[in-house]
Design goal:
The chain is α+β, with helices and mostly antiparallel strands. It has 6 helices and 5 strands. The longest helix has 13 residues.
Length: 150
């Protein structure tokens, strides 16, 4: 996980503009364990930046992804999610409650899954779908609020 100062430094090193909105997005994402959508980010930042646009959020997210600070997740077909945990891991999405859970995954064992792959894998995203433990136990009071299982 990265610190805000590291994020700002990477922005500066890349020649990216350091704006108050970009810093606010960095601060909002730093250390998060959930996987916020653009809607969540927009709603959380509107109190400080009433005119913040989705274009700013998506543009900043693309830049942060290019700098290796976040991953952009497409595990949900209704929204794009942002994950500030860039260490390799898989994601599980409960098809009942919609929760997204981080799942440890050893990138060094990719070859075991694809023994005939003779290419250099530089990046991948692993998505798993099913019913989470809470839903299996019938705990609907926690709908969509489970945290990661690192």
């Amino acid at each position: 996980m990265w610190a805000i100062e590291e994020g700002i430094q990477r922005l500066k090193s890349s020649g990216g503009k350091i704006t108050a909105q970009r810093i606010a997005i960095l601060k909002l994402l730093a250390g998060r364990k959930d996987h916020p959508s653009a809607d969540v980010i927009c709603n959380e930042l509107r109190q400080f930046f009433p005119t913040i646009s989705y274009a700013t959020i998506y543009g900043t997210a693309e830049l942060l992804a290019d700098l290796g600070l976040i991953n952009i997740l497409t595990i949900d077909d209704k929204r794009i999610l942002f994950d500030p945990e860039t260490a390799f891991h898989a994601h599980f999405r409960c098809t009942n409650c919609g929760v997204i859970i981080d799942v440890p995954f050893d990138a060094g064992n990719i070859g075991a899954f694809f023994p005939h792959l003779h290419h250099k894998v530089e990046n991948s995203q692993v998505y798993l779908y099913g019913t989470c433990e809470q839903c299996l136990l019938g705990d609907t009071a926690q709908k969509g609020t489970h945290l990661s299982i690192h």
